[in-house]
Amino acid sequence: MLEKRGDILYVGVDESNHGRFPEIFVAVASFNYQDSLIFPDLKKLRKEQQLVSSLRIRDYRYSVISKEHYERYSAKNIMPLVSSKLIESFSLECEFLNCYIDGEFRLDQKKLLEGLIKNQESLIFQSVLIKDVPKGDKRQTNYIISLADGWASWIAKNINTERITSGMVKRKVEFI
How much is the pTM? Predict the structure, then answer.
């Protein structure tokens, strides 16, 4: 579980299996400023041990999104809707939210996500920054998106196996 360690919550969001279903959306949260910095040659995190060790000062949540979700809410709205639900699930109060989304994020999507976050009673942020990071799962990215990418990939590969532990199931956020 993530403990509050500052006034700025950094969140990275990514999805795996894009275009194939189910898609796995992951949000990783941290109070560590270093997680938001861009690294020029960051290697992909794919090993379970690397991902688990990252949880000492971070936490993650994930949602499993079906083709029916896309048909119901539209492809352009899925990322903002799921991201807001994942962020809300951390149940943390702090002054600032810096949210990094992997990929191109249009202005209307940013405004939708910002509006959803600001309108949730359980979330109280004085300031919300939504930053898209085009090709954020490639080598030049910040650590928090790299972690979200790694968890999304790992969960997508293991979603129907016994490797999904009870601790992971507790981090699952239902998206309706």
Answer: 0.92
